[in-house]
Amino acid sequence: MAKYQIIAATGCATGIAHTYMAQEALEQAAAKRGATIKVETHGQTGVEHELTQDEIDHAQGVIIASDVAVDDDRFIGKRVIKVPVARGIREPDKLVGDILDDQSIPLFKDKGHQQERSTNKEEEAHSKGTSIWNTIYVSLMNGVSHMLPIVVAGGVLTAISFFWGIYSADPKSSEYNYFAYMLNTIGSTTMNLMVPILCAYIAEAISKRSGLIVGFATGMIAYNGGTGFLGAIVGGYLAGYTVILLQKVFKPLPDKELRGLKAIFLYPVFGVLISGLVMWWISTPMKDLNVGMMNFLKGMQNSDPILLGIVVGVMCASDFGGPINKAAYLTGTALLAQGNYFFMAGVSAACIAPPLATGFAVLMNKKAYTKNERSAGYVNFLLGSTHITEGAIPFAAKNPLLNIPAFMVGSAIAAVLSYATKIQVPAPHGGFIILPLVNHPVLWVLWIVIGALVSGVLLAIIAGRQAKKHGGVEPSGSSLTNLSGLDTSEDINTETQDLEMTPADAKEEDQILKKDEESFDPGNILTKENIELNVTASSRDDVLHQLADLAVKNHLADDADAVYKKYIKREDEGSTGMEQGIAIPHAQDATIHQSAMLVLKLKTPVDWKTFDHKPVDTIISFLIPEKDSGSHLKYLSNTAKLLTHADFVDALKKADSVNEIMQLFK
């Protein structure tokens, strides 16, 4: 049974993009640290890569980056970090570093109970507050994630029924069609489940199965009372915490003998009674509040579509599928259920524009984006067209203070134009797939494209200025472990058989990873002859020339000029300058005989494009034969692991003899 240092779980409200972006980000962050990780994903298709009890038992710690409820009772007794899924995407390195290095992270106790940290009272209070707000947020997103498929299914079926006429489901109308009537009935009945399902799964995230039961009952009372989705949200927390309260009240009863009685009788009966009565009493004011809010929004559609469009655009482009975006979307679906198809037009337009904008941006200014970013931008044309906003997140995260406002401008324009021209969108999702259901489809697409183009122009300008500021396109990543050259700024000619990963390489690497770690100790390919100290060099290119000459001098290669050109080619694809004055240039060529490592320490630092913008005085270089078994990947990886240790880097910088450097790497 495989054992992992870190285990994790990711999930987002829609279960489409955030979930897997966080998974990939955490896996990459763990690889940078040389740590093993397994990530359980909670997507729309269910739980994948489910963690086993043995894997949980042997893990050092757990990272839960999720906006939906994850069964965390499994992790009792482990060190656990719980954050929203967005932080899993934005801060994977920090999360992995904390779970590996921070021994003060408290052991997880139980769902709903506060974790304890042996710190001062102020820190404990802050920790508790964060935990409460995280619970509220996660439970809301759990309800939303379960509600969305129901809303989409019901909304689309209802919208399709209008193909036969807007009144085709009304038996009294001349447009009446029995099949349309059936579709409309099925769709509207499904849409009516929105309130009880949202309520039930908010409660389920708080108090598990007992909360689910009480939540469904409370949600139905909220629906019958006309409270709308506001009542569903209030009812969800009411039901969830009512069950928590009952668990405390009935705690003195012996759990072993009466566990079944509690779960089947006491919690559901008293829970539904208490939560149901409260919801019954507050239904009238909640209904008035809900109706008032909906009427206000309807009024804005007619009286001030520009202001409404700006508000909706800013909300949808502020967190790309996060809670602010979902607030606008929930309002749209609630109005949709009441037969208002105007509001959703602006919401959908504002959600579709950002990913399309990234595609336009990379087309307008290719040189300002890396190869991977350009590929992501092209894919976002497809994602945006299907109403998946999350594809814009990596672009927003790269420069949030400038890029997010740029997205907001385009989304606001698309929403304003949709409201101003009375576009109607009767389905809550689907993007351009549902164009046949839109009253002015060509016009709606035009407004979205205009908004996306405006954002695209702004993004391209921002990216161009950033690239110019940093002297060119920065390689993807920002750590010492970006060594293999896989994220490049220009396409690689496959005829050169350079370091680009292919499926065959991936298979070879997977086989290599199963071998003994010590067989790929970088010290095994380092000799005293390959180390030179107090080297005088005038520039980066001078250093690369000297490395190539040293390779020929030590009979590791035949042609210094060919090796030098491969060094330069690699630097053109993405600088190998790292941070803390270290660079790791590498060359792969037919004139190189065997894998080897060279180390140079310079008398005076030279300019080299690095992550911390500091000059380089320590060079660790790899020579790689053209027909390499894939072992270079492991040597690079193990060197990266060494460089993640501050004490090793410090010792390397202080080393002033060949023997010291040899000892360090061995």
Automatic annotation (TrEMBL):
**Where in the numbering of this chain does the PTS EIIC type-2 domain appear?**
136-477
> Could you tell me which PROSITE patterns the record lists for this protein?
PTS_EIIA_TYPE_2 (PS51094), PTS_EIIB_TYPE_2 (PS51099), PTS_EIIC_TYPE_2 (PS51104)
Originating species: Lactobacillus selangorensis
Mainly localized where?
membrane
Q: Does the keyword Cell cycle apply?
A: no
Q: Where is the composition biased (Polar residues)?
A: 476-487
Q: What UniProt keywords apply to this chain's record, in alphabetical order? A: Cell membrane, Membrane, Phosphoprotein, Phosphotransferase system, Sugar transport, Transferase, Transmembrane, Transmembrane helix, Transport
Q: Which domain of life is it from?
A: Bacteria
Q: How does it sit in the membrane?
A: Multi-pass membrane protein
Which part of the chain is the PTS EIIA type-2 domain? 524-666
Where does this one sit in the cell? Answer: Cell inner membrane
- One short Pfam family name for this protein? PTS_IIB
List the transmembrane segments: 147-167, 179-202, 214-244, 264-282, 303-321, 341-364, 401-421, 441-462
One of the GO BP terms on file: phosphoenolpyruvate-dependent sugar phosphotransferase system
Q: Which InterPro entries match?
A: Bacterial_PTS_Sugar_Transport, MFS_trans_sf, PTrfase/Anion_transptr, PTS_EIIA_type-2_dom, PTS_EIIB-like_sf, PTS_EIIB_2, PTS_EIIB_2/3, PTS_EIIC_2
Mention any one GO cellular component term assigned to this protein in its UniProt record: plasma membrane
GO MF terms, alphabetically ordered:
carbohydrate:proton symporter activity; protein-N(PI)-phosphohistidine-fructose phosphotransferase system transporter activity; protein-phosphocysteine-sugar phosphotransferase activity
By its UniProt entry, which PANTHER family does this protein fall under? FRUCTOSE-LIKE PERMEASE (PTHR30505), PTS SYSTEM 2-O-ALPHA-MANNOSYL-D-GLYCERATE-SPECIFIC EIIABC COMPONENT (PTHR30505:SF28)
Region entry Disordered: which residue ranges? 469-488
Domain PTS EIIB type-2, first and last residues per copy: 6-101
This one is known as Phosphotransferase system fructose-specific component IIB
